[in-house]
Amino acid sequence: MPGLEAISSPEIDHGPREHCGVFGIYVPKAAELGGAIASSLMNLQHRGQDAAGIAVNSYEGGIVVTPGEGLVSESFTDRELRGMGEATIGIGHTRYATSDAPGMTTEKWRRAIQPIDKNYGTNVNFALGENGHSDQAQRIATELGFNFNDFASDTDFKAELIAKRAREIDNVEKAVIDVLPMFDDSAFSMTIMTKDELIAVRDPRGFRPLVWGELPNGGYAVASEVAGLSILGIDKHKEVMPGEMLVFDKNGVRSQTLFEPKEPKLCLFEFVYTSRPDNEMYERTVWDARFDMGRELARLYRKLFDEGLIKVDYVSGVPESGVIAAHGFAEEIGRPYRDIFVKNRYVGRSFIQPTAEKQKKGVRDKLNPLPHNIVGQRLAVIDDSRIRGTTSNETVEMLWEAGAKELHLFLTSPQYLYSCYYGMQTGDHTRLSARKNSIEQEALEANVTSLHYLPLENLRTAVGRRVGERVCTACFTGDYPTDVSVKLGPPAHGDSRLSYIRK
Length: 503
Ligand code: SF4
What we know:
This protein is of the alpha+beta class. Helix content is about 30%, strand content about 25%. Bound molecules: iron/sulfur cluster.
């Protein structure tokens, strides 16, 4: 659909949103790929626990898609994975809850499970999965005469545009090249399979991570994170570069740039919360970045300890993202580290539960306090962020119940003040904790003895200045790298303090 002009839109309803894990594999000789895809998806499970799907080209000329609900381990039995048969290409997807999206029926929710497939004869036969969100999708749909609500998601809409173009020109790869540049202000890391090609594409700013590598016995794999590749024995990976399209087929791998160059804007929150500690982006390991976030916090707030304004017995971290930073904090400040929670490994991440009540229950299902490290102790508790505050407040409540004497909450990110349009579902902006509350009100609402955020510049230092200059910071600053449908001003309370100690 070349020639379509982007227009600005006042629309407020963004519809369904995605924030997911994607995977793709190409092997030169047909093999049972179901098990390998499921293994990689399990290593991307933290990116979405709501639904999963696998597509393979296991019969002549066709693609079979198997959708599932819940965790990967619940979605596919061994028998189902074996039943997917022998294939040369497969893609997989893990998806997180979007059931609070306006107008989302159960039937539509199921249709939104990815990979989404489009079958219109042998040459228009493909499946597609993506991580990201397109704020442009609704107005592009209107501009082209579609009713956006007919689609299960913005991903479904993109897939339909590709299918429509592929029918016109009888070629899926060329249709991808024609259609995706329209979405140049969107966030997507995408895998697409046809019956004989695996395609990987990343938006021009590279909001979401995407890596690829060569399989030890021939062939290639693509995944949202490095752990999706290393489980298959891939020990060297490369990034799919922002704006790049890679095509894997019997001739090897081809690279092409699909978009006009834009400034890279990798999501900074991938380092703070979303990615696994073993992920690596722009050659910076998430574990190292999180450890340094803890050290930066300790360096910045050391004065409060030196002057006796804060006294703690132990430094502790809230699993998972806070624990690594807590070790960095403890090392830097010279206080002992103690675990305060045991994490149930078989329960999903609480932030990505669809309702506040489910989130609260999710926290208690997931974390069990260790009272002998908590009773009567003054604790510096390191966590990643407060978005709506639901998870954080419940965590603090559990520590008081377990007998803590003082709770000083240190966060490895700045205040989360603005909605994300690039795949991080945070709900209505009026529910963002730091947006509606001054820091004093937040400390009261969180019920902590003191509350401290990491300023953006220190966060940039922690992720490494080279990386830190190439990231999106919009949810902290309101400085959106694209035209967005609703641009918010600063919070009405006008409080820019990052640290508060209750009297
Ligand atoms: Fe990431 Fe925030 Fe940018 Fe969204 S707005 S992509 S969460 S840094």
